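Q: Could you predict the 3D structure of Sigma-54-dependent Fis family transcriptional regulator?
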Amino acid sequence: MKQKETAHILIIDDDPDILLTGEIVLKQRFSKVSCVDRPEKAKSILDTGEVEVLLLDMNYSPGANDGKEGLDWISKINDLYPEIKIIIITAYGELTLAVEAMKRGATDFVTKPWEYEKIQVSVSNALKLARTEKEIIRLESKQQGLKQNLVIKSDQVIAESKEMKSVLQMAEKVSRTDANVLLLGENGTGKGLMAKLIHELSPRSAEVFMSVDLGSITESLFESELFGHKKGAFTDAKEDRMGRFEAADGGTIFLDEIGNLTSAMQSKLLTVIQNRELTRVGENKTRTFDVRIIAATNSDLEAMIEKGEFREDLFYRLNTIEFDLPPLRDRLADIPPMVDFFITKFCKKYGQNIPEIQSEAIAKLKKYRWPGNIRELEHAVERAIILSDGVRLMSEDFNLKKTVKSEGFISTTNLEELERLTIERVIKSNEGNMSQVAKELGIGRTTLYRKLEKYGFQ
Ligand SMILES: Nc1ncnc2c1ncn2[C@@H]1O[C@H](COP(=O)(O)OP(=O)(O)OP(=O)(O)O)[C@@H](O)[C@H]1O
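A: Sure. Here are the predicted structure tokens for Sigma-54-dependent Fis family transcriptional regulator:
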């Protein structure tokens, strides 16, 4: 016996004989057939999101035979459930009505009395059409993710310092697994690049890498953006749309700026990650997904947990493996190869010959604090390439702010403490030359001395 195709078909007709024969005939070919005698009763079945093909009678009120009711229902159903293919059931010879129904969005028509072979073929064709359309939508979303993949291929990861070498080794190991990864580090330390690298090295590399900047998604759009929506679920939901999780199916999703989620967003994300299934906004049906999750943030999540700003259970879901990307000032050995890498990149971009770099310039780059880390270094090199004489890159070409590397990252938000630390740093960098210190701080010498006294400096 031929195996049944897994599909849910719905028949709506007020004639019980039609429903009975339709059910018997279609059940020979399809796994599930539901029947109702009026369109008003079909809502709960349609809302399951399972029905792919609907056979619809055109007249319901006693004596009605112009098909007007059926035409109205076609428009309504098409509007609310655009993915469902509608086949109308007409009496023999009602060709004009069939044409009008097709104009409203019906896919095909079958005539009463049933021709068994014909309805099976018609439903089978409608089913193929429904599935092809779904596949096209899926591929379009996937392609968006694959475009992001292309950008990654050309990137290289520089890791000369021992800190970055060990990060790379760990990335290689982790990429072979499906473990969730949490990337921590200041802005511009390469969290995004590391996420792409882990994906590239993983068995999922031929699939989508989907990057989502959670910092730019508003609370109202969060659910629909990540989990998708049904047409009509809210005013702007003009079409059915899959979310980022579904579009990344088989691949990797990169949730950047995870520390920016409100508590409501955190709960929704946690439920989806925990259950490994999601529900599109406005739909009842749950959908499973197979996605590897990499999250990143420059926030101190543990401090946020303590303050009740980040859910501990979500944190433990995300941080199966945790990476700390060190700031650039703590991996000085990476600076020279990175500078070379960016010089080559930008000389190519601006069609220039590769210049030499003054050794004093490299020494200055190593002393600088790099609050914006590698992104800032990249911009500094780009600027230097544009401004240089094309032969030699000098330290002035990099336009570094007059600061030196501090002992550690100033994390205080207390103004007085910030002032004290800044003064301390500037004194060190000017080797105690107070006129210079006052000048750099932009204050008079008297004010400087008053502040030195206040903060107990010698
Ligand atoms: N090890 C590296 N080798 C070469 N380029 C790097 C390296 N790390 C980072 N970069 C480059 O530095 C820039 C910033 O990196 P990236 O965007 O990955 O940082 P990020 O930590 O995700 O930043 P943010 O927190 O602001 O999102 C990118 O252009 C990236 O390609």
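Q: Anything worth pointing out?
A: The longest strand covers residues 5-12.
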